[in-house]
């Protein structure tokens, strides 16, 4: 299996992503994504720094792989989650939060566990825990959102803190949530096969921000999709959205406007959390500059 280079660390600030849920959750922590390549277009994950800090996780729950995440141990947050979009056939499940035992003990059972009242110190060292988010003024932002997953079990599987980054409420329940709905609508209207999605967080250029001095906060959210098979004869106004499109969303209302401009007329609770839609190339250019490394999110740019 070949993996191109993708996500490396530049200034130490990087990306994020991932999660799961209820019942018997099984997570697999390996050195690569060999058990869950199907969540990447052409079975080709983006490339990343092979430093031990970056931990591929095949997100497994109730005996099935549900999606994939690259976890940044230093940031105690995912760099990205990769999944195949499929519209939810039910409601958002109860949020029963999980952690990944294998991040704490390499020989741990691959079963993902729900948080116990008492959390082992090795678990606390190795990853984010619920306490980190308490009183942090950040919500738990899904990279793979539960409403992009068809079955109840797939949705439950997104409630793992390995799929979560600290996200401002104004973004999470505002413009970023609108973007997630828009991508879902576009999938239903025009996509005629799988839609591969990769969503992550973009670190601050300098001066990392942390919650509880432990979990890195992204300055921006980003997302891109690849839908290689779409309806013939797309209306002209829609052609630009296929086979790929992307977006960057503000997660700090005080950020400058070079990457995502602010609409001053937006309502106060969401002002400063705008999302800018853009072609895939534009997103890759932004990530490349921020991370000082070449970035290619989808094999052959999602061209068949
Ligand atoms: C991927 O990991 C598996 C086991 O985790 C290992 O057997 C395999 O050699 C690895 N593949 C590559 C290309 O590193
Ligand atoms: C929760 O932690 C306590 C104390 O360490 C332990 O006795 C108990 O078995 C744990 N429960 C579960 C469900 O892991
Ligand atoms: C959260 O916001 C409140 C109100 O703005 C502030 O007083 C508090 O210090 C903030 N907490 C943290 C952890 O930043």
Would you kindly provide a written description of the structure presented here, covering whatever features stand out?
The structure is a single chain. This protein is an alpha+beta fold and 304 residues long. The protein has one domain: Extracellular Endonuclease, subunit A (Extracellular Endonuclease, Chain A, 3-Layer(aba) Sandwich). It contains seven helices and 16 strands. A ten-stranded antiparallel beta sheet has the order 7-8-2-4-5-6-11-14-15-16. A two-stranded parallel sheet has the order 1-3. The chain has a two-stranded antiparallel ribbon with strand order 9-10. Strand 5 and strand 6 form a beta hairpin. The two termini are 19 Å apart. Residues 1-26 have low confidence and may be disordered. One 2-acetamido-2-deoxy-beta-D-glucopyranose is lined by residues 135-137.
In summary, what is this structure?
This protein has 304 residues and is α+β, with helices and mostly antiparallel strands. The protein has helices spanning 101-104, 121-126, 130-133, 152-156, 169-172, 175-190, 280-291; strands spanning 6-7, 25-29, 47-48, 54-61, 64-72, 77-84, 98-99, 111-114, 139-142, 164-167, 196-202, 209-211, 215-217, 220-226, 244-250, 275-278.
What overall form do the CA principal axes indicate? globular
CATH topology: Extracellular Endonuclease, Chain A
With helices defined by DSSP (H or I, 4 residues minimum), what is the helix count? 7
Determine the fraction of residues in helical runs and give it as a percent range. 10-25%
Total of domains: 1
